[in-house]
Amino acid sequence: LSCKVLSSVVTPCYCFVSPQIRVKPDNTGVVTDGVKHSMNPFCEIAVEEAVKLKEKKLIKEVVAVSCGPQQSQETIRTALAMGADRGIHVDVSGKDYENLGPLQVSKILAALAKQEDAQLILLGKQAIDDDCNQTGQMTAALLDWPQGTFASEVSLEGDKINLVREIDGGLEHIKINTPAVITADLRLNTPRYATLPNIMKAKKKKIVTVKPADLGVDVTSRLEVLKVEEPPQRQAGMKVETVEDLVVKLKEAGRV
Amino acid sequence: SDSLKALVDPRSVPAARPDKTHWPLELLYLGREYPKGGDYFRDRLRAAFARNKAVEDPEQIKALIARGEYVARELEALYYLRKYRAMKKRYYED
């Protein structure tokens, strides 16, 4: 299968080791100033899979895409350091970026896929900041392509793709046609670390910046965030002396 | 030694041994996200290089470089596991 792969590293998301996430005082969202952003862990796995396919000479080229402000280019650089060939930065900043959601991103990815004549789109299954788990599915729908979501194993067979999906009941084996959209689950692979020498080499690779308007995409949001709240404070636990006490307490709380 | 010089100014070290000069920078880069803090790691790294500054014996140098490589791989494994376990804990009920 000689094809180009669009590997989306879409949202630079909150780094999982960042300090306490705080809700903004006006409850419209979460404080993002000064919070370290990095590549979504599931997208790292997607990029790794794309690079692996290229190393096996099953695909021709890996293009890393990120939508966001200037800082998104850092995330693209990481993808380039992992082995992607070139990057596309879709410049979305300010209010537009705050309201950027799966629908807008999928429209952008669909437009890019057509423009780049990509045969495969690889994304993480969900972003760890919004946990939507929608972008991959929406992109496939917009392009009318088959989708293999929650992939834990991917193999190419001629012009078809064999996929193992992680589902609630276990593992599902499917075969889909190309072109297709695949979203990566945790156990698909072990992403390589972008080492310093690779990051240096990646500086030579090209990143092109485009605007959503250039792709004919309107990024206005169809959603309005009404309120963002912190989860309730954890209540103190209660200690009981015997099993009978436990049962009584559970009955009182209406749990049994 | 060359390694410590490289820490200060990479260009001052002759290109004849390029493979040995990137290690201090690479370890410094890898150590940024060390759990106890990037500063903690950087200070310990500097101390370790300073301690071995005077080593001239090629065999010893090879062993020290091998240890540097080992530390680098250990750091990569640490970061990977930390991320993997965080994701597993958050998203998967086992």
Automatic annotation (TrEMBL), chain A:
Domain of life: Eukaryota
Pfam families on file: ETF
GO cellular component: electron transfer flavoprotein complex; mitochondrial matrix
CDD domains documented for this protein: ETF_beta
Domain Electron transfer flavoprotein alpha/beta-subunit N-terminal: 27-219
Keywords on record: Electron transport, Mitochondrion, Transport
Compartment(s) of residence: Mitochondrion matrix
Alphabetical list of InterPro entries matching this protein: ETF_a/b_N, ETF_b, ETF_beta_N, Rossmann-like_a/b/a_fold
GO molecular function: electron transfer activity
Biological process according to GO: amino acid catabolic process; fatty acid beta-oxidation using acyl-CoA dehydrogenase
Family matches, as Gene3D superfamilies: HUPs (3.40.50.620)
Homology family: Belongs to the ETF beta-subunit/FixA family.
Subunit structure: Heterodimer composed of ETFA and ETFB. Identified in a complex that contains ETFA, ETFB and ETFRF1. Interacts with ACADM. Heterodimer of an alpha and a beta subunit.
Function of the protein: The electron transfer flavoprotein serves as a specific electron acceptor for several dehydrogenases, including five acyl-CoA dehydrogenases, glutaryl-CoA and sarcosine dehydrogenase. It transfers the electrons to the main mitochondrial respiratory chain via ETF-ubiquinone oxidoreductase (ETF dehydrogenase).
The protein's name in its UniProt record: Electron transfer flavoprotein subunit beta
Species this chain originates from: Astatotilapia calliptera
Phylogenetic classification of the source organism: Eukaryota, Metazoa, Chordata, Craniata, Vertebrata
Record gene name: ETFB
TrEMBL record, chain B:
Domain spans labelled Complex 1 LYR protein: 27-69
Gene Ontology BP annotations: negative regulation of oxidative phosphorylation; respiratory electron transport chain
One Gene Ontology CC term in the entry: mitochondrion
Coiled-coil ranges from the UniProt annotation: none
Pfam families: Complex1_LYR
Family: Belongs to the complex I LYR family.
Protein name: LYR motif containing 5b
